[in-house]
Amino acid sequence: LVQAMAADATWEQDLQTVDDAIAAAAHQVQEGQLVEAHETLEVIRDLMMHARLRQRIVYPLDTLSDFHATMEEIVKPAMKLTPQTLTEEGITRLQALCSVADEKWKAAETAKFDLALFGVESSEVGRLRGLIEEERRAIGNLQSAFKNQDKQQIIKAATGLKPPFAKAYMFFGDFPRPVQPEQGPPTPDDSPR
Description:
- The protein is 67% helix and 0% strand.
- The longest helix has 24 residues, at 125-148.
- By secondary structure, it is an all-alpha fold.
């Protein structure tokens, strides 16, 4: 991996982008801007996914990251819509994005997740399957809303894509961490390279 990344012409810039994002997010956390810090750190997930793709490194969680990008293109605008502001062009755009999201979720459904890598017991496979199926149902709800041509239902189903996805994604990393109040948030100098 180290050799592969050393040969990647953009790797050094990628690492600088990671450092900058961590520094900016640490500042945002200190300012109490937790939502903004979350958004700032999202660039790292996408950047690392693209770095792995350039090196042809297969990492099953990248299927979730790839879906996430399209899902956000659906959810974020839908959160601001009303039946009165949802136009035919908007519906057409959401339908096209839903088709892309559907294909990307198929990749997640067939990905081979190494649960041991994440410290997850094999007994949890059923829970993961259930979370993946929950997102499939959410996509199906949006597809049905388009067929019914019900703008309120389209908006509700579009925004309904995120909660089941978040549960599936957090399955791989929402682990309890000890809280140590005497320590502040990590600084850029604390982050390993």
